[in-house]
Write a structure and sequence with these properties.
Length: 450
């Protein structure tokens, strides 16, 4: 049964629980319906037998033997059903094997329409006139004045009881169908209420992934608490590993810096041909090491837990630094950042993204660079524009490739945009190149907002 439910609903825990509840509830409802129907039928039969017995007692009370030894009835039941021909309601009085008197509904005594009824014993069901099934109640008594037994028999149609049972069955089906629907709705609500902590768990995990929280809250039900503890332990373990990797990356950067400087110094003393070949290879090594170290240092959305980085502060620091670096070009660095523009992530990652993009904009700009940022639909929309030559649409995809540079006259390794794309992807963001209103290149960023 468990395998069947799992196969039927492999991806929904709620539907699994509802299916399991329905599978055991359906037989219970069917059994309850059958028992109720059986009980109702038994009640109707007992009620009918009691009614037949009452008519029989009434007829026995009216029966007597006259002076000639004949059976006479002082009065008969006044129920109109006994007066309607072939109504199914009959009574009969017999002395010995001879029917003395019977109800009008059974026809005249001479016709013998109910002759066989006097042959039954106790309470039985058999076919009567017209093939209609009857429930017959018979009783034999001894009356003073005769040695022959006096038989009083009363019959009622079974189809009236069956009609009542059928009507009751329809009501049972409708009532139990309504109960079944109400039960499924109640189970759905109950399961939804019971699984609500899992939905909350999912939201809290999403908050950790987006950098809005550090750990899962401890206020979960006891059944889920062990899972929460394990997830928190896993988060701490991963955070420790990432911090360790970033520290190792920093140590590696310092360890490689001096040997590369020595090699660069020594290469400068070689002849031109050998110096050119070795300088190219050394620069390639330096670029690759720098790229790998930057990738390792990229924290990602869950490395530091709860992170909120005010974009205004980072942009102010960057514009100050870039203004100092490009002081001789008198660039105009304009900022338009809304107060609620807050990045959900690591500050170092945001500096890496904006630093590379803004540095590229300053390299190519003629006189102006613009940085705008606003919060839109729970996300952070950042645009960096310059008034430089821009990039042709057919070349924009190529410039995002690893180490691709469109103009070798401008200093750089060509790895900046590649690193930026990797960090943006790490945050499930988006980077797009377009045409700026200033005339140059426009870089649009979509990042998570805190």
């Amino acid at each position: 049964m468990k395998q069947f439910i799992g196969t039927l609903f492999p991806h929904s825990l709620k539907l699994r629980l509802m299916a399991a509840a329905a599978i055991w509830a359906l037989p219970v409802l069917l059994l309850a319906g059958v028992l109720l129907l059986w009980g109702f039928r038994s009640h109707l039969e007992r009620q009918l037998d009691a009614e037949l017995a009452a008519y029989q007692r009434e007829l026995l009370a009216a029966a007597s033997i006259d002076a000639t030894g004949e059976l006479v009835l002082d009065y008969i039941p006044a129920d109109p059903r006994f007066a309607r021909p072939l109504s199914g309601w009959y009574w009969q009085a017999a002395l010995g094997d001879r029917v003395v008197r019977q109800s009008v509904s059974a026809g005249p005594t001479e016709s013998g329409g109910l002759a066989l009824l006097s042959q039954v014993e106790g309470i039985v069901e058999l076919d009567g006139p017209g093939g209609r099934e009857l429930r017959i109640f018979r009783r034999d008594v001894k009356l003073p004045g005769t040695d022959l037994p006096v038989t009083v028999l009363v019959a009622a149609p079974c189809d009236e009881t069956e009609a009542d049972v059928a009507q009751f069955a329809i009501h049972i089906v409708l009532i139990f169908a309504a109960l079944g629907i109400a039960f499924l709705i109640a189970v759905y609500l109950q399961v939804g209420f019971g699984l609500r902590p899992l939905a909350r768990l999912r939201r809290e995990i999403a908050s950790i992934r987006d950098g809005r929280a550090e750990h899962l809250s401890p206020s979960f039900p006891d059944d889920i608490e062990p899972v929460v503890e394990e997830v928190n332990a896993l988060i701490d373990h991963n955070r420790h590993l990432i911090e360790r990797a970033r520290n190792e990356a920093g140590n590696l950067a310092h360890a490689i810096k001096n040997p590369l400087s020595v090699l660069s110094h020594e290469i400068a003393h070689l002849d031109d041909a050998r110096r050119q070949v070795l300088a190219v290879q050394l620069q390639s090594i330096t670029d690759q090491v720098e790229r790998i170290l930057k990738r390792i240092r990229a924290a990602g959305p869950t490395a530091t837990g709860h992170a909120r980085v005010e974009l205004t502060a980072v942009a102010d620091d960057l514009t100050f630094s870039l203004g100092t670096i490009y002081r001789d070009r008198n660039l105009s660095l304009r900022l338009k950042i809304e107060p609620d523009a807050v990045f959900a992530g690591d500050r170092g990652d945001l500096v890496e993204i904006l630093g590379n993009l803004c540095d590229n904009a300053c390299k190519w700009a003629r006189s102006s660079v613009s940085i705008t940022a606003l919060r839109r639909d729970g996300r952070l929309a950042i645009a960096i524009e310059d008034d430089g030559p821009g990039i042709a649409p057919v070349a924009r995809a190529a410039v995002l490739g690893r180490g691709q540079r469109l103009d070798e006259r401008v200093p750089g390794s060509g790895l900046g945009l590649d690193i930026v794309c990797e960090i943006v992807t790490l945050y499930r963001g988006r980077l797009a190149l377009g045409e700026s209103s200033l005339g140059g290149l426009r870089v649009d960023l979509d990042l998570p907002a805190a």
